[in-house]
Amino acid sequence: MLKKLAVLAFAGLLSLPAWADTKIGFVNTEKIFRDAAPAVRAQKKIEKEFEKRDQEMQRLAKQLQAVQESLEKNSVTMSETEKRNKEREFNDLNRDFQRKQREFREDLNQRRNEELAAVLERANKTIKAIAEAEKYDVILQEAVYASPKLDITDKVIKALADGK
Known about the structure:
Elements: H1 2-20, E1 24-26, H2 29-35, H3 37-74, H4 80-133, E2 138-140, H5 153-161
Helix pairs in contact: 2-3, 2-5, 3-4, 4-5
């Protein structure tokens, strides 16, 4: 057993020079999605696209709150029929609001994923171009830890802003 460990350790030492010449880079995808010009444009595009629906959701939420407050405030003075009708109105409005809210979130997430996929595709092309131009052997996009000296994220963000 000890002999096998010694052989493995020796083999590992022999392979060190091969790694010494390897050029490795790291890209923080989250930072690209947050700071890169195409990602910022995509976010603004989505906000504009969903602005009217967001305003409609806010209007519905206020309407729902007003009905609830009216019900709470006036329930003591209402007849049973009025109270039941107001509760039914509140429940119908609440159900409609919940459905529209769920649809809104689903549509928003789908559009965000579409736009981010396009940003990621463009970023990957830019990363590949940088890797080829600067002779990187490996560029990682996911890592538990990467030394700041390996991080080329800002270079990628700049290249995306320049339209490369």
